[in-house]
Amino acid sequence: MEQDVGLRQNVRSNAASPARRRRLALNGRLHVGLTLLAIFVIGSFVLPLFTSVDPAAQGTYLKNLRITSKHLLGTNALGQDIFWYLVFSIRNSLLLGVTVSLGITAISTCMGLSAGYIGGWYERVVVTLIDTFITIPVLPILIVLGALVRGNTSFLTVGLILVTFGWAWNARTIRSMALSLREREFVNMARFSGANTFQIIFREIFPYVYAYMVVGFINTILFAINTEAALAVIGLSKVQVPTLGSIIFWALNYNALMIGQTAWIIAPIVATVLLFLGLFLTSTGYNDLFATRRGVA
Amino acid sequence: MGLVQYVLKRFLGYLLVLFIGITITFFLPRFMPGNPIDNYISQVQARAGQSLSPEAAQELRSSLEELYGLKGDLLTQYVNYLNRVLLHFDFGPSFTSYPKPVSEIIFAALPWTIGLLLITTMIAWLLGNLVGLVAGYFNKHAAATALEIFGIILYPIPYYILALTVILTLAYFFPIFPLTPTWLPGALTFQQAGLILYNSFLPALTLVLAGFGWNILSMKSLAVATKEEPYVTFARLKGVPNWTRMTRYVFRNALLPQITALVLSLGTIFNGALLTEMLFSYPGVGLLMRTAAGAGDYNLLYGAITMAIIAVASAALVLDLIYPLFDPRIRLS
To answer: Which residue, among B191, B160, B325, has the nearest Cα to B255 in the 3D structure?
Structure first.
């Protein structure tokens, strides 16, 4: 008997100490992620106030200048300052990412919550749609659309297309959360107290899904920036707008490597890796912070 | 009975996904601004100057509509399209290499993509899961933390960045592999096979790296959670050795969600492979799509997309169908 208690305590303390260590490490993740994000957001939104030059205008400076204090990353083969181009690229990519993510989060939350709670044939239709949109590879469809509009499109259209094809992943997760919440006691309680479907979804279920929504929102920013950039790299987005993808498109198009313009291609690579790392660390850190607070993990 | 139901359900789902996917690729471009035929005719007019009479342009338009399958109202077009694509696998002729049928060009490129994808996905999945398992099972080791940090840094990096980094390091700064690969025509000889391997190494490395990070992270957290399950503790108290517990108790159970995750991420993996092919000029379906998009060869583009949807959906179906082999709950219920 005593042995049993000792064993149980032993198991418990074993379980507790890595958990505490993990929590600290996770807070560390959130800290690093938020710091990286803060640098990118503040940098890319404040710095443009200090320049009057349009970074996308060609021939502003001499071509292919080396790295100096005046041109922090040199100038490229189009006579643009690489540093300023990069700053504007990050800002535009972030703006696109947040806008698309807002749209996707709204749609996927509505679809996921309603499908999970209402159920029946409505759920079956939504789930089939979700499965289809997850299975279909998005890039080929975006390539066709890109080839059809051939750059005669606004940056906004690119965003709309991304929303159309990006909502399924989040909707899938939120639906499964709503599905399990539907069976909880407090939902039954609310139903027997006379709350209608709309009230139950938004008053009872939504607060539980909220934490995941934030995580999904950040992940979707990553998805949106990534997909637009991928399209831009192969020249099928609006490459006249500086984004993290279009800067690489121009660098590849002007054979930056062959003419020794390594800064033109390495700078966006480093910026993208750091930005994505920041977004990823923030989303996983936030996810685990909420999981521990809810007492799930 | 459970198994039959499972297979039937998956197969119906497969057909439904194919149907919806093909319907979307049919309707979406028709709601977009711009018309490929107008584009093409204005290109021809620009080249021909004034010599193209309006009557000739009208004739050109009607024969192009015939070729693209744009005759009649939307519903007839749709039924014709489904009939041609699903029953006859006919996407019409290619425009850039005219009388050659699109399906022939696609079938020539398909083995390249499938070969690359199959090999890299298997390597990335197996290797990532094994590393993740060890890191998760021995999660108190410093090496496990190092592996997790490696996974965290690797996972969010997009495909095109990985591809460019691989090019920069292994073809530019340390020129071990070619910056622009050369593909020799001719029969498959020993030397030819060597050249193919040499040229495919960098795209393959990119795809393996891309799949690696996620598998490490996901498998690690699954293994950590499974390790704490009562049946594993019981096995430990019973005296089951470490290795057996790791492989037979933890791994087998943590494997199931990983297979499901692989099915769900097939589309993303395929997207990444297309991008990687484009950046490395690897002669698969991805490069085909890019050249077709650049040249305005819409039949080829449509064929490639439909093929892509069929390929990914079929791969998902195959994985779904072998899933019962791993999960006795479906097999025996």
So the answer is: B325
Chain B residues inside the 8 Å CB shell of A131: 13, 17
Q: Hey, which residues 196-225 in chain A have their CB within 8 Å of chain B?
A: 222
A145 and B28 within 8 Å at the Cβ level: the answer is yes
As given in the structure block, the two tokens for residue A195 are 């709350």
Inform me whether the C-beta atom of residue A146 falls under 8 Å from chain B C-beta atoms: yes
Which residue carries 């799930």 as its tokens? A296
Torsions phi, psi for A81 (to 5 deg): -80, 120
Q: Any idea what DSSP says for residue B250?
A: I
pTM confidence score: 0.83
Q: Is A75 helix (H, G, I), strand (E, B) or coil?
A: strand
Nearest to A128 among B16, B29, B140 (CB): B16
Q: Which residues of A touch B270 (CB under 8 A)?
A: 137, 139
CA distances for B116 relative to A176, B160, B199, angstroms: 34, 16, 12
Give me the amino acid identity at A27: N
**A118 burial level (CB within 10 Å; 0-12, 13-18, 19+):** middle
Q: What does the alpha-carbon distance between residue A283 and residue A155 come to, in Å, rounded to a whole number?
A: 26
- For residue B161, give the chain A residue with the closest CA: A269
pLDDT band at A25 (very low <50, low <70, confident <90, very high): low
Lowest-confidence range among A16-20, A231-235, A245-249, B152-156? A16-20
Residue A277 has pLDDT above 60, yes or no: yes
Q: What is the pLDDT of residues B54-63, one digit of tens each?
A: 777 778 777 7
- Optimal mutation site among B161, B268, B301, interface A, most CBs of chain A within 10 A: B161
Lowest mean pLDDT among A20-34, B160-174, B207-221, B302-316: A20-34
| Confidence grade of residue A284 (pLDDT, cut at 50, 70, 90) | confident
Q: Which residues pair with B93 in a beta bridge?
A: B101
Cα–Cα distance for residue pair B35/B251, rounded to 1 Å: 53
CA atoms of B80 and B74, how far apart (whole Å): 10
A233 to chain B, any CB pair closer than 8 A? The answer is yes
Whether residues B156 and A277 touch (CB distance < 8 A) is answered with yes
Nearest Cα residue in chain A from B151: A277
Mean pLDDT in chain A? 81
Q: 3-state DSSP call for residue A81? A: strand
Longest dimension (CA), chain B: 90
Model pLDDT, residue A19: 56
* Predicted pLDDT at A253: 85
Give B229 to chain A, closest Cα distance, Å: 11
> Smallest CA–CA separation between B195 and chain A, in Å?
24
Whether residue B168 has pLDDT greater than 50: yes
DSSP assignments along A2-57, one per residue = HHHHHHHHHHHHHHHHHHHHHHHHHHHHHHHHHHHHHHHHHHHHHGGGG--S-TTS
* 3-class secondary-structure state, position A52: coil
- Of residues A137, A233, A262, nearest to B308 (C-beta): A137
